[in-house]
Design brief:
The protein has one domain. By secondary structure, the protein is an all-alpha fold. It is rod-shaped, with a radius of gyration of 38 Å. Helices cover 39% and strands 0% of the residues.
């Protein structure tokens, strides 16, 4: 009876140890992601501002294709 208990404990411990082992598959490492370059800014961003707020507002609100104020 004692031999059966020892044998069953030995088999159970071997099964538990083998079940806790890590799998043999290789772990994949995360790949570095390359960022794309930012898009070009819109053309209106690159236009120079008028030095005066009044002139800037007149140019923004003017329905004419040319500027409302002339230096």
């Amino acid at each position: 009876m004692q031999k059966k208990t020892k044998l069953s404990c030995a088999i159970a411990s071997l099964l538990l140890i083998s079940g806790c082992q890590s799998s043999s598959t290789q772990q994949t490492l995360p790949k570095a992601v390359t960022c794309q370059p930012p898009p070009a800014p819109a053309a209106w961003i690159m236009q120079p501002y008028e030095p005066d707020l009044t002139r800037r507002m007149l140019n923004e609100l003017s329905p004419l294709p040319m500027k409302a104020t002339v230096d």
